[in-house]
Amino acid sequence: MNNNDLSKNGFNVIKPEQILFCKAQGCCTKILLNDKTELILNKRLNIVEKDLTPNDFFRCHNSFIVNVNYVEQVEENICKLKESDEIISISRRKKTKFKKKLKEKYFIIIK
Protein backbone atom coordinates (compact mmCIF):
# COMPACT_ATOMS: atom_id res chain seq x y z
CA MET A 1 0.00 0.00 0.00
CA ASN A 2 2.08 2.92 -1.15
CA ASN A 3 0.53 6.27 -2.00
CA ASN A 4 -2.41 4.80 -3.91
CA ASP A 5 -6.14 5.20 -4.23
CA LEU A 6 -8.47 2.75 -2.60
CA SER A 7 -9.54 0.15 -5.12
CA LYS A 8 -13.03 0.40 -6.60
CA ASN A 9 -13.24 -3.41 -6.60
CA GLY A 10 -12.17 -3.96 -3.01
CA PHE A 11 -11.36 -2.19 0.21
CA ASN A 12 -8.54 -1.60 2.65
CA VAL A 13 -8.99 -2.34 6.34
CA ILE A 14 -7.55 0.45 8.47
CA LYS A 15 -7.46 0.49 12.25
CA PRO A 16 -8.39 3.93 13.63
CA GLU A 17 -5.18 4.03 15.68
CA GLN A 18 -3.19 3.93 12.41
CA ILE A 19 -4.68 7.22 11.20
CA LEU A 20 -2.71 10.41 11.92
CA PHE A 21 -5.10 12.77 10.22
CA CYS A 22 -7.65 13.18 7.46
CA LYS A 23 -7.51 16.17 5.13
CA ALA A 24 -10.18 17.45 2.75
CA GLN A 25 -9.10 17.54 -0.89
CA GLY A 26 -12.08 18.77 -2.86
CA CYS A 27 -14.67 16.00 -2.97
CA CYS A 28 -12.11 13.46 -1.69
CA THR A 29 -10.28 12.90 1.58
CA LYS A 30 -6.56 12.25 2.03
CA ILE A 31 -5.79 9.91 4.93
CA LEU A 32 -2.25 9.78 6.31
CA LEU A 33 -1.33 6.66 8.28
CA ASN A 34 1.38 6.35 10.92
CA ASP A 35 3.58 4.38 8.51
CA LYS A 36 3.53 7.40 6.09
CA THR A 37 1.07 5.68 3.73
CA GLU A 38 -1.28 8.14 2.04
CA LEU A 39 -4.69 6.98 0.90
CA ILE A 40 -7.22 8.95 -1.12
CA LEU A 41 -10.81 8.13 -0.22
CA ASN A 42 -13.56 9.10 -2.64
CA LYS A 43 -15.70 10.58 0.16
CA ARG A 44 -16.03 14.08 1.57
CA LEU A 45 -14.43 14.79 4.94
CA ASN A 46 -17.78 15.18 6.73
CA ILE A 47 -18.75 11.62 5.68
CA VAL A 48 -15.39 10.24 6.89
CA GLU A 49 -15.84 12.11 10.18
CA LYS A 50 -19.02 10.14 10.94
CA ASP A 51 -17.09 6.85 10.66
CA LEU A 52 -14.36 7.84 13.14
CA THR A 53 -14.53 7.31 16.90
CA PRO A 54 -15.18 10.66 18.61
CA ASN A 55 -12.91 9.85 21.59
CA ASP A 56 -9.78 9.76 19.44
CA PHE A 57 -10.56 12.17 16.61
CA PHE A 58 -11.33 15.87 16.51
CA ARG A 59 -12.36 18.11 13.62
CA CYS A 60 -10.06 21.03 14.37
CA HIS A 61 -10.63 22.82 11.06
CA ASN A 62 -12.96 22.58 8.06
CA SER A 63 -10.13 20.81 6.23
CA PHE A 64 -8.71 18.60 9.00
CA ILE A 65 -9.62 15.81 11.38
CA VAL A 66 -6.75 14.80 13.67
CA ASN A 67 -6.14 11.76 15.81
CA VAL A 68 -5.60 13.39 19.21
CA ASN A 69 -3.34 10.49 20.23
CA TYR A 70 -0.68 11.87 17.87
CA VAL A 71 -0.84 15.52 18.94
CA GLU A 72 2.57 16.62 20.10
CA GLN A 73 2.32 20.39 20.26
CA VAL A 74 -0.17 23.20 19.75
CA GLU A 75 1.07 26.69 18.91
CA GLU A 76 -1.30 29.55 18.13
CA ASN A 77 -3.58 28.07 15.44
CA ILE A 78 -1.29 25.23 14.39
CA CYS A 79 -1.06 21.66 15.59
CA LYS A 80 2.04 19.48 15.22
CA LEU A 81 1.65 15.71 15.13
CA LYS A 82 4.12 12.95 15.90
CA GLU A 83 5.16 11.10 12.75
CA SER A 84 4.15 13.96 10.39
CA ASP A 85 5.59 17.17 8.98
CA GLU A 86 2.15 18.36 7.82
CA ILE A 87 1.01 21.69 9.24
CA ILE A 88 -2.45 21.18 10.72
CA SER A 89 -4.55 24.32 11.05
CA ILE A 90 -6.85 24.86 14.01
CA SER A 91 -9.76 27.20 13.42
CA ARG A 92 -10.13 30.00 15.97
CA ARG A 93 -13.67 28.97 16.86
CA LYS A 94 -12.64 25.33 17.52
CA LYS A 95 -9.42 26.04 19.41
CA THR A 96 -11.04 26.14 22.89
CA LYS A 97 -12.89 22.84 22.35
CA PHE A 98 -9.71 21.30 20.95
CA LYS A 99 -7.69 22.31 24.02
CA LYS A 100 -10.45 20.97 26.29
CA LYS A 101 -10.43 17.65 24.43
CA LEU A 102 -6.65 17.38 24.87
CA LYS A 103 -6.84 18.26 28.56
CA GLU A 104 -9.46 15.56 29.15
CA LYS A 105 -7.17 12.96 27.65
CA TYR A 106 -3.64 14.09 28.56
CA PHE A 107 -1.49 15.95 31.01
CA ILE A 108 -0.56 19.20 29.28
CA ILE A 109 2.62 21.12 29.96
CA ILE A 110 2.35 24.83 29.28
CA LYS A 111 5.50 26.73 28.36
Task: Name the CATH homologous superfamily.
Answer: LytTr DNA-binding domain
CATH architecture: Beta Barrel
How much strand?
35-45%
Count of discrete alpha- or pi-helical segments spanning 4 or more residues? 2
Termini, distance in Å?
39 Å
Say how many strands there are: 9
Q: Which CATH class applies here? A: Mainly Beta
Structure characterization notes:
The structure is a single chain. This protein has helices at 45-51, 95-105, and strands spanning 4-5, 19-25, 28-33, 38-41, 57-61, 64-67, 71-75, 78-81, 88-89. The strands form two sheets. The protein has a six-stranded mixed sheet with strand order 1-4-3-2-6-5. Strands 7-8-9 form a three-stranded antiparallel sheet, with no helix packed on it. A hairpin with a 4-residue loop joins β3 (28-33) and β4. With 111 residues, it is of the alpha+beta class.
Which secondary structure elements does this structure contain, and how are they paired or packed?
Blueprint: E1 4-5, E2 19-25, E3 28-33, E4 38-41, H1 45-51, E5 57-61, E6 64-67, E7 71-75, E8 78-81, E9 88-89, H2 95-105
